[in-house]
Amino acid sequence: MGTMRRVLAAAIFVVLLAGCGNKAPEAPPRRAPSATTTPTASSATSSAAVTVPVMPEVARSHTEAGAKAFVVYYWHVVDYVQQTLNTAPIEVISATTCAGCQAGIEAMRKLARRHSHLTGGAETVSSLRSEAVIPNHSVLVAFNLTNEPQRVDTPGKKTVLHPGGTTNKLMSLLPREDGWIAGELRSQP
């Protein structure tokens, strides 16, 4: 996975933990799914079909199953953000202390301001493993994140191609009354 792609993914994660405001960018660009992959539940071919993913009830529970479900949900939200460049949904599930998340959010906002169009880039979460699940305390979830190739077209700029690939990730989740927020996201060897 390219460095820019990692920064964008990490930034998006931080935004989800932050719980920041819900202001959407003006005229958000849309992202079409890649023709070589099956779209995820959060990807769509028209703007009318793109909806904010709904958090499953299990993802709200402070259990191992809940933590794992939240991580999967989080990446569905990341897909939504990439399709719409509307960062509000990720902001409410990301901590403000996550530098990588905040960088990703700002990267998405920058793409929105430039009227960029993203194609492909959907994420798939697999091999989830949790560590130290203690009710009402943070939990660490390790997982593999596979990104499909992505194309970024920005008016007046050279097209950027991200090759896709799989990385090992570690996400720290912090409990809150209505479930979890992402506290930290990092790549692992």
Task: Summarize the structure in words.
There is one protein chain. The protein has a 4-stranded mixed β-sheet with strand order 1-3-6-7. A 4-stranded antiparallel β-sheet has the order 4-5-8-9, covered by helices on one side. With 189 residues, the chain is α+β, with helices and mostly antiparallel strands. The chain has helices at residues 3-18, 64-84, 88-91, 99-113, and strands at 31-32, 94-95, 117-120, 123-131, 139-147, 150-153, 160-162, 165-176, 179-188. The protein is 30% helix and 29% strand.
Keywords:
189 residues, alpha+beta, four-stranded antiparallel beta sheet, 4 helices, globular, disordered N terminus
Short recap of the structure:
The chain contains four helices and nine strands; from the N terminus they run H-E-H-H-E-H-E-E-E-E-E-E-E. With 189 residues, the chain is an alpha+beta fold.
